[in-house]
Amino acid sequence: MKIKDAINRVRWKYKEKIDDYVIVIKDKLTETGLKEIPFTDIYTVDNNYLYLKGEDTIIPLHRVLMIRRKSDDALIWKRGD
Question: The CATH number of 3-71 is which of 3.30.750, 2.30.30, 1.10.10, 2.40.30?
């Protein structure tokens, strides 16, 4: 499944519990090299980029590594799957 499809599936299928989901991206500026972005921060997604609400932040989809559910640490989608 493409990352765009996985993001949209979570956004629409689990919209009542959307605050329980995060996207994990590669981020050179963090100590771990990873950063979690809550699904509540997502404005939209297209074939190449993830756009965040209220910011001028645009994240290339190739930086997205996984989608995770926080409550039970379940892996919803992972790059390469």
Answer: 2.30.30
| CA proximity to 61, closest of 46, 75, 48 | 48
Task: Give this prediction's pTM.
Answer: 0.88
SS3 letters across the chain: CCHHHHHHHHHHHCHHHHHHEEEEEECCCCCCCEEEEEHHHEEEECCCEEEECCCCCEEEHHHEEEEEECCCCEEEEECCC
The residue type found at 37 is I
pLDDT in tens, 17-31: 999 999 999 999 899
